[in-house]
Design a protein that fits this description.
The N and C termini lie far apart (about 95 Å). The chain is an alpha+beta fold. It has a five-stranded mixed beta sheet with strand order 1-2-3-4-5. Strand 3 (about 60-70) and strand 4 (about 80-90) form a beta hairpin. Helices cover about 20% and strands about 30% of the residues. The chain has helices at about 10-15, 95-100, 115-130, 155-165; strands at about 20-25, 45-50, 60-70, 80-90, 105-110. It contains four helices and five strands.
Length: about 170
C-alpha cells in the first residue's frame, strides 16, 4: 500500500501486482473542480485498489470522501455537499467491450494504456456535485398555497362596471 499517488499508472501491470494507494489530495489541485466551488481550501481522502475482474481485465476500486462547498441556488448562502463515494471501474480497450460490461461496473477507456488516478478522483468528485446546489431545508422561498380562481380579483371587473353604467 502506498500513500503517494503516482501521476500515471499502467493499469494492466499495477492490477497484476494488486497495488493499493491511499492518501489525501488538496481540492485546489483539481483544475476542473476548483472553479465550481466557493471554497477551494480543503482536502479529499482517497483510496484506490487495483486488481483483476473475472475476465482478467484491470479493475480499479476507489473511494473518495470530502466536503465540497457551493452556493445555494435558493438563498445564495454557502451549502456543504458531503461526498462519500465508492466506485468500480473496469479498464476496457474499446466501445464494444464497454457495452458488454456488467451494470455493477463502469467502463474506463485507457488513453495510451495509461491512467491518471488524480483525474479519476476529480471525475468522481465532479459526478458527486448536484445539478442544483441547495440546502435541504432552505427557507429563502416560502411557497404559499395557490390562489383559487374565486379568491383572485378579476382585473376586468372595473371595465364591467363601466359598461353597466352606460
Amino acid at each position: 500500500m502506498s500513500s503517494r499517488l503516482p501521476k500515471q499508472i499502467d493499469p494492466w501491470r499495477v492490477s497484476e501486482q494488486g497495488l493499493s494507494y491511499t492518501g489525501v489530495a488538496e481540492l485546489i489541485d483539481f483544475p476542473r473542480l476548483a472553479p465550481l466551488l466557493i471554497r477551494q481550501q480543503g482536502s479529499v481522502d482517497y483510496a484506490f485498489r487495483l486488481s483483476r475482474d473475472g475476465l482478467g481485465r484491470p479493475l480499479i476500486e476507489g473511494h473518495a470522501e470530502t466536503t465540497l462547498w457551493q452556493t445555494c441556488q435558493r438563498c445564495s448562502q454557502p451549502v456543504a455537499i458531503p461526498v462519500d463515494s465508492d466506485f468500480q471501474l473496469v479498464v476496457v480497450e474499446g466501445l464494444d467491450e464497454a457495452a458488454a460490461l456488467n451494470d455493477a461496473f463502469d467502463p474506463l477507456m485507457a488513453d495510451d494504456e495509461k491512467v491518471n488516478l488524480l483525474d479519476l478522483l476529480e471525475d468522481e468528485l465532479l459526478l458527486s456535485l448536484p445539478v442544483v446546489a441547495r440546502h435541504e431545508e432552505c427557507h429563502a422561498w416560502q411557497y404559499d398555497e395557490p390562489i383559487s380562481a374565486e379568491e383572485r380579483e378579476n382585473p376586468f371587473r372595473i371595465l364591467q362596471k363601466l359598461k353597466s353604467t352606460n
